[in-house]
Specification:
The protein is mostly helical. It has eleven helices and no strands.
């Protein structure tokens, strides 16, 4: 499969931006006195709205049209549906085998950690397990961003922004416990930053898979799987985390706003 250098660099750059936004969360944790929970609730809801709308009304139909063109209406629809749920199954399996001692999407405010003593090994373990869990989660997210940007650059930008928003509280989840366990902002930022690097790694693996295993149906199958991954992330991670940050209705308002913005942008680009 031939992908031009410009398209590759564009897609990879978007994936790198999305992954390294964990560092933004780390900076916010250190240099604000208290996490703005209402803002993050709306932002996470918005991100979920973008990803759900794009997955169900843009990516899945594109995958279906592609596969129906190859296999016919009935079989193509069936294969698209199977690939969609395979994507959900993949991310659910990753979720199941990720270290579960600490929830990597659990919000940790700077103020919540002040009662812990420096050099607390349990706190350091919390941060390191969060970094590992987030790195594993970010791998398929990187694949999703990269594949989407290759297929449709405008769609890739929307997904990259949504995932970047989603990665901000993950950066907080890593950096805050590591900072209070070690007293080192530099070390906390480093682990937070490194946890996001698996996202561009996912993009590279996705590119190699497309190069090695590409056939006429690959984009359709991959796109359907990406839709499933994004739906799972939205329902299992983004919305529950938004609920924990603040008010239920703020999360829903953000969700609806994300869907509306995505709908308008797709209409304008049509």
């Amino acid at each position: 499969m031939d992908i031009s250098l410009n398209i590759f660099l564009f897609a990879f750059g978007l994936t790198l931006f999305a992954g390294l936004s964990t560092g933004i969360g780390s900076i916010l944790a250190f240099y604000t006195k208290q996490t703005n929970k209402k803002f993050l609730t709306v932002a996470l809801g918005f991100s979920a709205g973008v990803m759900l709308y794009v997955s169900m009304l843009e990516i899945f139909p594109e995958a279906r049209a592609s596969l129906e063109g190859i296999y016919g209406a009935s079989l193509g629809y069936l294969i698209t549906t199977i690939a969609f749920f395979a994507g959900i199954g993949l991310i659910a399996l990753i979720d199941k085998f990720v270290p579960s001692e600490e929830n990597p999407h659990e919000m940790h405010d700077i103020n919540d950690m002040e009662k812990h003593q420096e050099n607390d090994p349990a706190l350091l373990r919390m941060g390191l397990f969060s970094a590992l869990a987030i790195a594993i989660h970010n791998f398929p997210e990187g694949l999703a961003t990269f594949i989407s940007a290759i297929e449709d650059p405008a769609l890739g930008v929307s997904i990259a922004i949504a995932i970047a928003i989603h990665n901000i509280p993950e950066g907080i989840a890593v950096s805050v416990p590591v900072f209070f366990a070690t007293g080192s902002r530099k070390k906390a930022f480093k682990y937070s930053f490194l946890s996001g690097l698996s996202e561009p790694l996912g993009a590279i693996v996705g590119y190699l898979l497309l190069q090695i295993f590409f056939h006429e149906a690959m984009f359709g199958l991959t796109f359907a799987g990406v839709a499933g991954i994004m739906v799972y992330i939205s329902l299992d991670e983004l919305l529950p985390t938004a609920e924990k940050y603040g008010e239920h209705h703020l999360a829903i308002y953000g969700l609806v706003a994300g869907m509306a913005v995505m709908a308008v942008s797709l209409i304008l680009m049509a």
